[in-house]
Amino acid sequence: MRGALGGPRVLLRRLREVMAEPVSAQERLDKIVVLIAANMVAEVCSVYVLRVDGTLELYATEGLKREAVHQTVMRTDEGLVGLVASQANPINLSDAQSHPAFSYRPETGEEIYHSFLGVPILRAGNMLGVLVVQNRAHRTYSEEEVEALQTTSMVLAEMIASGELSALAKPGAEPAVHPRRNFTGIPLSEGIALGHVVLHEPRVTIKNFIADDVQKELKRLDDAIAVLRTDLDTLLDRGEVSDGPESREVLEAYRMFAHDRG
Fold this sequence. Notes:
There is one protein chain. Helices cover 37% and strands 15% of the residues. By secondary structure, the chain is an alpha+beta fold. Helix 1 (8-20) runs antiparallel to helix 2, helix 1 runs parallel beside helix 4 and helix 5 packs antiparallel against helix 6 (245-259). The protein is globular, with a radius of gyration of 23 Å.
């Protein structure tokens, strides 16, 4: 089904425009849920963000009660939203209230809505939140609608990962963008070590989430691969490789990847 604002491509274009506007994080989120609801002909669109304490907080909504924003909080083992988060998979229901995981939250006013589609907001395999649309009528959302909502969630994932929403959070309830990890090890020797630190995964700041010209971007990719192939061929043919067969074998493997047509 396509809404008043057109199909997924139109939605993504409008989302890109909203992402570029000089507005506050809350205003941006509020505009995003309105666009998604209109495009998908949904009476409700809500964004739940995973917090550092492991709970999900309602950050924005179109259709539910506005006073529930930043007030409704649920565990990842609670309700359909929690089920989407815990399983990291979409849930598509024509009668959400009959599902055993349904959890009634009176402050939201969602009891009048029957159909439910929730998709996880993921980035690099990490759970960041849940995007939900709902309707009063009993209906199962189409595969195209599920895919469109999943694609849209990628835009929200970048917004959350950028840290923009941290300003909206209370201390101790910030978005779980960088989950804490504890490592236990045994020192080989005491004292201070001096050496070089190599950053293997430098942070890349993405400013334009949607390509303005798909064909142009594809050509850029083809050109880059062509340069990679030429450089590898030149390096191996000239023999400018460190001593030892291992180095050459690694580069030969790279060359096979570069020339692979699969």
